[in-house]
Fold these 2 entries.
Entry 1:
Amino acid sequence: MTNLSSFRLALDRDTRVDQGRLWASLMAMAEVGPGIAGGNNRQALTDEDGAARTLFARWCQEAGMEIHVDQMGNIFAMRPGTDPDTAPVCVGSHLDTQPAGGRFDGILGVLAGLEVVRTLNDRGIRTKHPIVVANWTNEEGSRFAPVMMASGVFAGVHSVEWAYDRQDRTGIRFGDELERIGWKGKMPVGSLKLKAFYELHIEQGPILEAEGTQIGIVTGGQGLTWLQVNLQGRSAHAGSTPMARRRNAGLGASRVMELVQQVAMSHQPYAVGTVGRLELRPNSTNSVPGSAELAIDIRSPDATVLAAMEASIRHGVEAIAGELELTFTISRLQHAEPVAFDEPSVSTIRNVAASLGYTHRDIVSGAGHDAYWLSRVTPTAMIMCPCIDGISHNEAEDISPEWAAAGANVLLHAVGETALVDACTGHP
Ligand code: HGY
Ligand code: MN
Ligand code: MN
């Protein structure tokens, strides 16, 4: 049993990450899978995702870490601790992006984790617990639903087999695609037991920037439900079909979109509702749409509000279909309850932010994150940094190098406190 007195609870307070190196890594990663407007299109399990993984793994190996990959392609870059029998402290997020995604959503959390290790290496600092930097597969859920898929398997929310059978909209299976890009590991998912998990993420909303606050102390996150609605009418000639004889699925879709807006607005200020995906068939200018598929995203920090929104939407879709003589199906694509993070871990983040002199405030996450599921299996907390105009899931997503470094410094010191710094190492 190691003598605990040889470990300090904290790094020297003047220890900071290398802001320029972190920013250079973010910009280099942004070159992989570029979008069309300055952001990224690096969707899960595409070749671009594979290239990002390869780059990340190389950087981690150059920093002296061992690479472990589980059956869901989750990457765990491990920095050994002085006591190999202890559970690692994990930091990380995701490298996959939305189709019109930004350069920082998820990527900041992964590369700030790498920067933490690079900084400890620079200072020759050892920790008692190993440190793991994680890249969680398919956080975005845009190509393969649901969101936070592989961290969900890690936390026991989904089975590996169920996840492997998820298909994208062209019918490609998740498991086959993971195999194709060469990132289907052998490590059983969830076998890595963690001491704690910290995720740094951009806010993806306007609060921190508007207040001029540097750090968000994330106390929890709102719940989310995705619903898929399929409306079935009859395609018909746009010219020769009288209005009274139409069974117009496109009209039905427009009313469902308005319904989602009204339901969200009726639960303000803590509810949001979006129809982000709409597909009409046959999708031809001179054919009345015979069928429509809509994907609905509703969220609230209050579980009862979320349930009430879902019930109102289900009821409203039935009424709309009746009025327009459509048949319909409505099904849940996914659901995550609102989450509260581990209070001692949240306090660590808050105390570190204060001791480093950063302005900070508690905040509830509007977006979903891998930390949601990790909080089921290990003490978990999140750190947020502002983003410009609160824009995200948009190629214009942007942050400042200073915000990135401030978040990474809080991550660095939170890791130092949790992984226990070996007092005999590091510069005086
Ligand atoms: O949908 C979300 O909240 C996350 O960006 N995947
Ligand atoms: Mn994200
Ligand atoms: Mn996202």
Note: Residues 139-141, 147, 367-368 surround (2S)-amino(hydroxy)ethanoic acid (ligand 1) (CB under 6 Å).
Entry 2:
Amino acid sequence: MKLLVMGPPGAGKGSQARRLVKDYQLTNISTGEMFRQSANRGEELGKKAMEFINDGNLVSDEITNEIVRRRLFEEGDNQDFLLDGYPRTVSQAKALDNMLKEMNSRLDAVVNIVVDKDIILERMVGRRVCKNCGYTYHVRYQPPKTQGTCDQCGGELYQREDDKLDSVRNRLRIYEEKTKPIIDYYKGRGMLININGMQSFDAVYRDINKALRDVT
Ligand code: AP5
Ligand code: MG
């Protein structure tokens, strides 16, 4: 299955993606995660990207399309994947269409996780991420067993720079302006599945699974 998971910042894309990739055996392609890992490795690309990310701005379409292209082609034509956080502009959506056409492939479904703004703010401010493996927690909704330490790998948990209030506000504004138009883009093609993200982790996952059963 070739799946796209979208939704506003903090909607729960990453949290749902990590279960979906395991259960459906998909390659996880998260552009945000790719930029953060690149920065952690001290690479120029990641360091440059973080200058935009930390303030809540988008990385350029050109750079983002290129890292996705490389990744998709490296995985090969028949690889099933889940895209988390890409595309994020209409221009990226068109670039993705072209990449898939070149690969004689197409998306099977676009899952759009719908969450109201006040809930988003609470989720982002309480999020903690492992410095080492990127696993995500929430101080209230998904706390680690030991405060400040990752259950998965023992790494140190930190707050993402772009989860500070000013950046969050900017990310939400950019989402409205640049990313929301993609919803209509995919709706027009009959691919869009809206999921209520304002439920427990398990309930959101159950609804996504139910909707995907009709697709596969
Ligand atoms: P990215 O890392 O993709 O950030 P985002 O889209 O803003 O989304 P988040 O990762 O913040 O949220 P999420 O939806 O994954 O939620 P999560 O599961 O963590 O991108 C970061 C930046 O990189 C961008 O701002 C941009 O600068 C750049 N970038 C990335 N892709 C790009 C592109 N294509 N083009 C240009 N630039 C790009 O959940 C959030 C919190 O809520 C967690 O604490 C979680 O535990 C909690 N939570 C989740 N679900 C629930 C639930 N059901 N109940 C209670 N708590 C929940
Ligand atoms: Mg994420």
Note: The CA atoms of residues 108 and 213 lie 11 Å apart.
